[in-house]
């Protein structure tokens, strides 16, 4: 019984697979493809312990294909070429049964390692399935990403996690030999951080620590048996989300001390520097915006800098940016404007583009009046002429309302001077 519980009860068929109904449920986007055995190269993106490796195994099993596994942690270009050569010999070119090459943590592959996969994927020697906890748009090279479909695995909810425990109790021979009553689950779920594998391993630890065959699982029992999390930061657990939330809220709240403290917690925990920098990029636009447009420039420069230098020096650049953002004037006007505009689009559907605003590349379009009444702003005084830029049904609708800060007050004066009472500036 050396094999961990999570491995012993790993689902082997789609029917046993828990959660991700949007992918492999009755009407899931992957279900039909798996049943038919026609699988595209794909990237599975989701939090740790949500079934990415399990799903890859099931896809190979259901489609009856040879299955090769590489881990990005300990595989180089040489390993990739060797497994591709094996795959070429195991399957025929351009057949429906070409082998599957599963790469765990593909985001850890360098550009040259990812480049070495391109030929095999493009020529159909292998069907690539990559698993990643990071946004593939940032971590997978565009040439490889364009050859793959991206499927998102959702974090497990409370019901999913409890179902994992109950399924383990029903399926595992060792657990079935015990009389286990699942009385309380809050501590188990909290300690797992939503990671199914971690949940099952904690559950097994608690069961193994009891001498009696009759075990009542309570929160008190779990907390007494599992050493409390003493690390400052667990980048795969719930603290990952709680601490980045505290960090961004400190920036939004203009507290540089809070921002630097939570930044230090992430740095000491070994958080990915690009993850931190990406969140500051978002905050620079969402929370600061036009109150200080330079914030976005600095955040973007920070992202580029820390991507180039890494730890430990990256901490200095991250600290500089965090303090700059925290001490900057704040405005969420741009964020609110696009939200309001998107909501209007959803409610009003596809309204026609007014004729003066339409492009007229052909004679027919010109004859139909496309672009005829358009007034070229640069032909008028102050490079401005009053015109209508919204569909008739939305005439006068205000999406952007300048924030209450020095720079946006100037923008408000500028816009009022141009548009008078047309909009609520």
UniProtKB/TrEMBL annotation:
Keyword set, alphabetical order: ATP-binding, Nucleotide-binding
Signal peptide annotation: none
InterPro entries: AAA+_ATPase, AAA_assoc_2, AAA_ATPase_RarA/MGS1/WRNIP1, ATPase_AAA_core, DNA_pol3_clamp-load_cplx_C, MgsA_C, P-loop_NTPase
Stretches assigned to the AAA+ ATPase domain: 38-156
Function recorded in the entry: DNA-dependent ATPase that plays important roles in cellular responses to stalled DNA replication processes.
PANTHER family (UniProt xref): ATPASE WRNIP1, WERNER HELICASE-INTERACTING PROTEIN 1 FAMILY MEMBER
Stated family: Belongs to the AAA ATPase family. RarA/MGS1/WRNIP1 subfamily.
Full protein name: Replication-associated recombination protein A
Species the sequence originates in: Maribacter sedimenticola
């Amino acid at each position: 019984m050396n094999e961990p519980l999570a491995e012993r009860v790993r689902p082997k068929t789609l029917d046993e697979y828990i959660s991700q109904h949007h992918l492999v449920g009755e009407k899931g986007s992957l279900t039909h493809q798996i049943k038919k055995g026609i699988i595209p190269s794909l990237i599975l993106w989701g939090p740790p312990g949500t079934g990415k490796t399990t799903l890859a195994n099931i896809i190979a099993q259901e489609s009856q294909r040879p299955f090769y596994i590489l881990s990005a942690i300990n595989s180089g270009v040489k390993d990739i070429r060797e497994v591709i050569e094996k795959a070429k010999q195991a399957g025929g070119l351009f057949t429906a049964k070409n082998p599957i090459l599963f790469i765990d943590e593909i985001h850890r592959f360098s550009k040259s390692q990812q480049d070495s996969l391109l030929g095999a994927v493009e020529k159909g020697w292998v069907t690539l399935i990559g698993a990643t906890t990071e946004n593939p748009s940032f971590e997978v090279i565009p040439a490889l990403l364009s050859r793959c479909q991206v499927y998102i695995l959702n974090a497990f909810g409370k019901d999913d996690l409890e179902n994992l425990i109950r399924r383990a109790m029903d399926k595992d021979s060792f657990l079935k030999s015990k009389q286990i009553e699942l009385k309380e689950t809050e501590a188990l779920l909290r300690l797992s951080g939503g990671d199914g594998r971690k949940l099952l391993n904690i559950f097994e630890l608690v069961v193994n620590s009891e001498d009696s065959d009759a075990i009542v699982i309570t929160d008190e029992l779990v907390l007494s048996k599992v050493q409390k999390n003493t690390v400052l930061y667990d980048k795969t657990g719930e603290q990952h989300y709680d601490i980045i939330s505290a960090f961004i809220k400190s920036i939004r709240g203009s507290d540089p001390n809070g921002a630097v403290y939570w930044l230090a917690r992430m740095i000491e925990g070994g958080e990915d520097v690009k993850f931190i920098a990406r969140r500051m990029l978002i905050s620079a636009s969402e929370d600061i915006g036009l109150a200080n447009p330079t914030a976005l420039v600095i955040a973007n420069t920070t992202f580029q800098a820390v991507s180039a230098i890494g730890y430990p020096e990256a901490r200095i650049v991250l600290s500089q940016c965090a303090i700059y953002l925290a001490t900057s004037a704040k405005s969420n006007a741009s964020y609110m404007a696009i939200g309001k505009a998107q909501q209007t689009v959803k409610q009003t559907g596809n309204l026609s583009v007014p004729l003066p605003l339409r492009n007229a590349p052909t004679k027919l379009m010109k004859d139909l009046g496309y672009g005829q009444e358009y007034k070229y702003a640069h032909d008028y005084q102050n490079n401005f002429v009053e015109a209508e830029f919204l569909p008739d049904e939305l005439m006068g609708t205000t999406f952007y309302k300048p924030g209450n800060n020095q720079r946006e007050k100037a923008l408000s004066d500028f816009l009022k001077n141009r548009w008078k009472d047309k909009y609520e500036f």
